[in-house]
Amino acid sequence: MTSQTSRPSAGAPETLGFAEHDHRHCVQSAILAAETSCADAGLRFTPVRRKVLEILLQEHRALGAYDILDRLREAGFGAQPPVAYRALDFLVTHGFAHKIERLNAFIACAHPGATHSPAFMICRICDSVAEAQATLTNGALGAAARNAGFVIERTVVEAEGVCPTCAERSDT
To answer: Which of the four, 10, 109, 141, 168, has the lowest number of CB atoms within 10 Å?
Structure first.
């Protein structure tokens, strides 16, 4: 996540989270991408880190650290907050997960291994989160940064609204 202008790898969906998809494949491919990336970079993909990523992949909504800690405890892992926070820090640092600032929670990356600039759409009704691609350096923010001589290294774009499922329910 160092370049703000890169696109995800070819064939990657633009938005993931609200659309129907093969969730088992989603989880398996993300775990495989994390394993491969860690092996290539010489990083340790410990059982706790793997389990935290699996927990995040099980749903398309952001989870707080204490929710993750509860699930770790149920799975027989450590019950102290640093266990979850260290794993989350690793996953975020290496691009396998993102922190949703508005919710103070975490979500698995929909495009693991791809350098990208994510934007998050958060449903205010069901708390589901979809990740989409943003190209902020090409837009108004990028122009303002260039005019000021500022180099954007990281952005966090979060939009709150209503997902298609909740919008459909409210129409009936």
So the answer is: 10
* Residues 6 or more apart whose Cβ sits within 8 Å of residue 82: none
Within 10 angstroms of residue 57's Cβ, the number of other Cβ atoms is 23
pLDDT at 5: 30
Per 3-state DSSP, the chain is made up of helix, strand and coil in percentages (nearest 5) of: 45, 15, 40
CA distance 35 to 18: 26
CATH number for the domain whose boundaries are 15-171: 1.10.10.10
pTM above 0.70, yes or no: yes
Q: What is the pLDDT of residues 109-132, one digit of tens each?
A: 887 766 777 889 999 998 888 888
